[in-house]
Structure formats: structure tokens, C-alpha cells
Queue: 2 jobs
Job 1
Amino acid sequence: MTNGLREVAIVGVGQTDHGALHAVRDAERDDHALAARALAAAVEDAGLDKNEIEGLICARVGYHRMADITGLHSARAVFDLEGSGRMSGVAVNQAVALIRSGVVDTVALVYGNNGRSVKMKYGGEGGGPTVSYDEMYGMTSPGAYVAMMYQRYAQLYGAPEDALAPIAINNRRHAELNPIAVMRKQISRDDYLASRMIAEPLRLYDYCIINDGGVALILTTMERAKDLRHRPVRVAATAATANLTNFYTSTDLFGAACADVADRVYTESGFQPSDMNCLQIYDNFTPTVLFTLEGFGHAERGTAWQWVRDKGIGLDGGRPINTAGGHTAESYMQGWAHHVEAVVQLRGDAGPRQVEDCRVAQYMCASPIVTSHVLVGEDN
């Protein structure tokens, strides 16, 4: 018990083979079927009976159809979340709250995405009342907004043209060791600089992938977790703070919201940035990694571009980042696969990309809803 609340663990994870799905586009590929496949894998991974699942939280897929496909017709807590990347952290945050408070004992989180096969584009779909004013200036997607924020960052802090290259290169190095990653071919600094601009100053390798896949997580009480198949991964802390406007731009690079979440997760968990053995950072675009590192106290303001260059963000570095390949190399499962990777690392099951003595991991998402969790690998 923590402050009278039950402790929570992630006990099951499942995901599809993102690389295999990316290799063959299928216009009839179904996002709900991908999500169901991931959930079946997570149930098997946990070693529990599917009928123990009392809560169902879905993102990008609808709970009505997921209940029919999976047979989870009688869940006691049910939610649908929008298909944005910030929702993976929100889903974990909600599941922890449900379990801690005793509303349910076990929750399944389910995500499915057939974006590549249906030729999904992120941006340009319309939106709120200011969209027409944004579009006339070329602001048609989150990438354009992040490019604007990074332009400001680079001017303020003197980041050179290749400042983002170490992040893109690092993701590819990790993806090479991940058999289900989409982009496993390594790139060099010269490759990065030679790639075309998408929204200046962001290049091709600064952008996430559009791909198909499914991911599922199962959370339950620590008490129940001790009897299940794998080493429990305890949620030592989780928090969220919004930074909401009608556009995807934050003048402080989500700094204040990140600082608020950081203070709460570090206080609740008892861990500090220097205690983290690996970081799983939501990286829809590479500048987000810089904003996150600074916002959560891993690097001083204006220095993260040097931090990723000098501190060692690879598997043998001081603080490995996105050890499965991140959103620019493994897949763009909108933050969900980052959670899977954190669990796999803390279990010690990551194979050739395993971080040595990985005991504490942090998930962070700097976005209009900032979220973070501190996760700890526990002995059975």
C-alpha cells in the first residue's frame, strides 16, 4: 500500500511484428484485429485468465467492437481514448488510478493502428476555429509546429544544423538489434544531413514512421502480480498535466507542464533523473526528445542538444534512450510500444539490446498532455 492506495504493476505486454506488417501494405488490414492480436499476446505473456480483466481502455479502436472480438463483454470500467500519441501515457495513468482506488483489480489497455495500409496522413484533416488561419502559413500538421518550436530552440541556444542527428542515429542503432523494428538500417551523420527537408529545419529522419500494428498492456495489483508469470514491473509513480491550446505549439516547449509532472513523479517514486537506467521518450519528432530531457531535469535548459551528443544515449551509455528504436525506427505506435520496451528492459528480456542491470526506467511524453511514469523491476 502507498498512502493507503494499492500498488500497481504491469504484468503483461503484447505487440505485433511491426516490421513484417510494414513490409506488406494491405488495404483490408483491420486495426481492431491488430489490437486483438496484441491483447491475446499480452494475456498469454501475463499468464492470467482473460476473465480476470475487469477494465478495458482502448485507444484508436472502439471498445464496443473490441469487446465483441475479445469476449470482454462485462468489464466494470470501460473507456475509449482518441488516437493521439499523448494517450498512451494517459491510458496508463487512468488504469493505475482505477486499480489503486479499488474500482477494479485488473485492466487491459489496447491500441490498434492500420495507418500505413489505409494511407493515413497526420495533419491536414481540419480541426478547430483557428485552423484556416494556421493553414495559410503552412501549419498543417504537428510536424510543422514542432519545427517552429525547434527553430526557436536552435536560435536561443545555438544548436547547429546537425544537433538532432545523434537522436536519429541512435534510434537506428537500437532498431538494428530489434527483430520487429521497421527501419533497421543504420544511418550516418552524412546520411542524416543529406536527407530531404520536410518542415525546415526538420528532415526526413526527424519524423516518425507511419505503420500498422497493435499493442496491449495488462496492469493489476502488486499482490496479484507476484503470482504471475514474469517479474512484476511496479508503477512507482505516474502523473499528468495538460498544456492545452487549439494548436500544437508551446512557447516554453512544454517546459512548465513537464516540470510539474517531473516534480510529482520524482517525489512520489523517490527516484531522481540520475537514478534512471533507461529512458523511453515519446519522439513523434526528434526535437521532442530535447524538450523532454530538459523539461524533466535530465539536462539543463538549452543544453540537451549537447547532452545527447556527449552523455551517451546508446545501450552502453550513461542513460540509454529509446532502446527499441523509438518512433523514427522501431515503429510509430504513438507511445504504446515505448511502454512495452520499458517492461521488457526491466524484466531483463531485451536480448542484444538489453541495458545492463536495468532496474528503474522512466517513460516521458512532452505534448499537449504531458505524462510520465517511473517503473521499477521487482523480484517475484
Job 2
Amino acid sequence: MKGPAIFLAQFAGDAVPFDNLDAIARWAAALGYKGIQIPSWDGRLFDLARAAESQDYCDEVIGVCRQAGVEITELSTHLQGQLIAVHPAYDVQFDGFAAAHVRDNPAARTQWAIDQLTLAARASRRLGLIAHATFSGALLWQTVYPWPQRPAGLVAEGFAELARRWRPLLDIFDENGIDIAYELHPGEDLHDGLTFDRFLDAVDHHPRANILYDPSHFLLQQLDYLAFIDIYHARIKCFHVKDAEFRPNGRAGVYGGYADWVDRPGRFRSLGDGQIDFKAIFSKFTQYGYDGWAVLEWECALKHPAQGAAEGAPFIAAHMIRKTDHAFDDFAGAAADTATNRRMLGLDDGRSNGVHHP
């Protein structure tokens, strides 16, 4: 595992040092981060279209990061990926994610999002990356609770359409040698293991259809986030290290009652302030040989982002495990051979064991 790293989306802004790549990279390195995950939609930090076409520009970006003391972990297209599939109920809310010239035009917005993902695949290859972070978008989210009753075939058709939109992009990412890692997240049609399974079936288990693992979203859904690693570890290609807590009360539970984040029973917290068992998570990732990045995604209803960022790097570093290269009891082991093993089993010890072979 590599890290610690930090996702820059929640920190980028118009004030120094958050307004350009060189300055924010140096800020991250000074806090102890070794990698940065770059939001590809933020022109203050990165020019996605230019990166897709220009190796010189990508080499320049790599050089800026290395000079600052960090590596690029992945590019992110969370906002653009969301727009691959948008139900009309969310048109107005999600229009702000798109470029101004395609707003109020759902078909143009979808094509723009597809073009953005295509650029991201090419840019990722030029940057020497191997994974890409994104969202799936959603056609079914407004039906997540089955009332009114869903008509027969609705879910199947929703996932079939999602697959039709993503399959060509999965092929493009495959051509560029990049894994798509979908962050399984409420508001997306891919938000838990079962929905990922449905999508995987619909894209014929495409090798580039993979997962960005973020335990905070699973805690808030009351899903077993440790068992999830046991089941899906082969498909986990990215890791957002984000904490959360779920404290239901007599007035609200998992749906939150439309409360603001600070008042919700389920809310995101800075690392170490929530309920996520990161020791167990890092242990399972080590057990299964996860070799990607551990990337802080800071979101907290209480703590200031500067404090959360400063605490994040040492927290991740303290949880990373250098995997042992030998068993702890090897000192007590003995050289073995077939003859010795058979003697220990009571076989071939020079005495008759009453077994006669033809």
C-alpha cells in the first residue's frame, strides 16, 4: 500500500496556497502527504483537455508534483461521472456540475460527460496512472425505497441502460490501461455490493469495472464494511480513508429527517473522530495485498479542514502495515522432506501398518 495521500477536491479554492497545483502540492507535502488525488474538473489545478492531448503538459504536471514532493495517485471525475446518467428529477440540481454551454440540455450534458471521461482515460495514461476515481450516475436512485412499488423489470432496465452508457467507456479505459474505480456512494446507482454486482453482470464482468472503497458510506448504510473487503477485494482499486459515525435517536435514523449534516444521526467525521475500525480495514487490505493508494477524503461536520488535513497524514501513516515476509514462528520450524512427513503420519517408518497395497 502507498500513502498517505490526500484528495484535493475539498481544499482547492481561490486563496493561496489552494489556487494552483504547485502551491497546493507543496502544502500537502509539508503536512506529510506523499500523494495527491486531483479533481479533473478544477481548472485552477489541472487542464484535463490539454492533458489528454499533450504529453509535454503531462510531463510538466508530473514534474511540478515531484518537485513539490508528491506523486499523483489518480485523477477524479466524480462530477462528470455523475452526469453520465441523470434522472430528470435531478436535472436542475446536477446542471451545476456541467460546463455552462451544456446546461439546460440533458442530451448535450450527457455527451459532455462522456467526452470528459474519454479525456480522463487518455490523460491518466499520459500521466502513468493505473486507476481512475469516479461516480456511476443514477437513473434509479429516486426509487431506492420501494414505495410506490416498483413495476416489474424497472431495476433490470435501469441497470441495462447504465451499462449501455458505461460499456464503451470501460473499453476506452481498457485501451488506455486504466481501471475505473466507482465510488459506491448514496445517490449513485452503484452504492453497495448488490448494485455493483448488478452492474458487473450487465457489463459482462468487464475487467476495468472496479471499486473505490470508502467505508464511511457503508457505515451510514449500516453495511458490514469489513466483510465487503472479504467479498470484493479483487475489484478494489482505490481507497478513500474517510471516517463517519451513526448515532440514531428517537427522531431520526438512516434517512436523517432532512436535517443539516451536523444534526444527522449519520455524519462524516475527520479521521479518528468517528466509528470506523481503520485498524481492521488496513489489516484486511494488507492481508489481500492491496497495492494502491490510501487517500484521505476530508469531510467533517464539525472540524476545520486545516485541522483535519493536518491530522490525516500521521493517522494514515500510523495505520499502514509493512507486510511481513515470513511467518512469526519460523524460528521454531524444521526442515521437511517427504520421508520425514510420512514418518510423522505413521507411514513408511519401517514397521508394518497393516495396510497392503496391490
